[in-house]
TrEMBL record:
GTP cyclohydrolase II domain ranges (all copies): 176-332
Alphabetical list of InterPro entries matching this protein: GTP_cyclohydro_II, RibA, RibA-like_sf
CDD domains listed in its UniProt record: GTP_cyclohydro2
Gene3D superfamilies tied to this protein: GTP cyclohydrolase II
Provenance organism: Candidatus Wolbachia massiliensis
Any one Gene Ontology molecular-function term assigned to this protein's record: GTP cyclohydrolase II activity
Pathway stated in the Swiss-Prot or TrEMBL entry: Cofactor biosynthesis; riboflavin biosynthesis; 5-amino-6-(D-ribitylamino)uracil from GTP: step 1/4
Protein name: GTP cyclohydrolase II
GO terms (BP aspect): riboflavin biosynthetic process
Length: 360
């Protein structure tokens, strides 16, 4: 077959369509769902959906529903949308959302949300339930309308595939430590790139120092005072330089996994409504932390390393590494200086996200 892995390719094509504002159909054993990213729609395209059905919904994640219901625990829901102005109001994420006409969501809705998160768009899917007599009829309709049809099983397999492969390796010279080696990896699901920065010559049979660092455009590059990311990165490099070796796994997971644009939206929510970073994520419909550290475990395995000492304040990194075959013999904290701009953020990390400053 000319195209090797059609399952993977089809999901990647669907993500590309979603980013461009186009609809796709997803289906399981008993449901057919036409959906598009709500934030990409304009009034004319919304009106086209109204021609298909009067019952148009937007999916709301459990974190969004929990936030607007004042922190009572709730599951994901559907919100009936009557017109484009209602949709626009929802996308603008007003803190004073008064949500009415909530209905139970379907299991298939979760698949739409997953695809939106892969696309780094807001997790609001405009959905229309479709009725087809058979898969053949569905495929004919999709072909006629030039719409991709995607089995939810393909999406689930794509989401679970955390395998990585090495792309290239080269020396690099850093101000703090002179020569290092940097290795670029790509994930098999989606081709997102992550990087391993190798300082010195870590002993594969020993317990090298490892720092899992999620990318932070505003902190690492712009030296933002609103977070401690850049300080953590450079302190980790210095500690490894002083000890003679270490590995920094630089993961492209900006904004705790929601992407840079959504992170900037969350910043705007914080400023506008005096929210902390957790509630800002929730009002946008995201979980408190959307990151996965499984890919870090896969990178360490590619490097032939099975036992490490971890530089972190985040216990979740420890548990995910352990659950994926990496032995962590010790966790060492990174102690950062606070300032008036990041003090509230630091308090939230320790008070609500479970970070801690201790050796364990």
């Amino acid at each position: 077959m000319f195209i090797g892995n059609q399952s993977k390719n089809k999901v990647e094509r669907a993500i590309s369509e979603i980013k461009r504002g186009l609809p796709i159909v997803i289906y399981d054993e008993s449901n057919y769902l036409l959906f598009a990213a709500a934030e990409t729609l304009e009034r004319d395209s919304f009106d086209q959906y109204k021609l298909i059905s009067d019952n148009i919904y937007v999916t709301l994640t459990s974190s969004k529903v929990t936030y607007i219901s004042r922190n009572e625990e709730h599951s994901s829901k559907r919100l009936l949308i009557n017109n484009f102005d209602e949709l626009s109001h929802l996308i603008n994420c007003s803190k004073e959302d008064h949500i009415k006409e909530l209905q139970c969501s379907k299991k298939i809705d979760e698949c739409a949300t997953v695809l939106l998160k892969f696309s780094e768009l807001l997790p609001y899917a405009l959905v229309v339930d479709m009725t087809f007599r058979s898969r053949h009829e569905m495929r004919d309709w999709c072909e006629k309308n030039d719409i991709i049809a995607l089995d939810t099983l393909l999406v689930n397999n794509f989401q679970q595939n955390q395998n990585v492969y090495e792309v290239c390796k080269t020396p690099l010279f850093l101000k703090q430590t002179q020569k290092v080696n940097i290795i670029s990896y790509r994930t098999e699901s989606g081709g997102r790139e992550h990087h391993a920065i190798i300082i010195g010559n870590p002993d594969r049979d020993g317990e090298p120092l490892v720092r899992i660092h999620s990318s932070c455009y505003t902190g690492d590059l712009l030296d933002s005072l609103s977070c401690d990311c850049r300080s953590q990165l450079h302190q980790a490099i210095q500690i490894m330089t002083d000890s003679g070796n270490g590995i920094i796994l630089y993961l492209m997971q900006d904004g705790r996994g929601i992407g840079l644009t959504n992170k900037l939206r969350a910043y705007d929510m914080q400023r506008k409504y005096n929210l902390d970073t957790v509630d800002a994520n929730r009002i946008l419909g995201f979980e408190d932390d959307e990151r996965s550290f499984i890919v870090a475990a896969e990178m360490l395995k590619k490097l032939g390393i099975k036992k490490i000492q971890l530089l972190t304040n985040n216990g979740r990194k420890l548990s995910e590494l352990k659950n994926n075959g990496i032995e962590v013999t010790k966790c060492l904290p990174l102690i950062m200086e606070r300032n008036k701009y990041n003090d509230s953020y630091m308090e939230t990390k320790f008070g609500r996200l479970g970070h801690g400053l201790r050796v364990f």
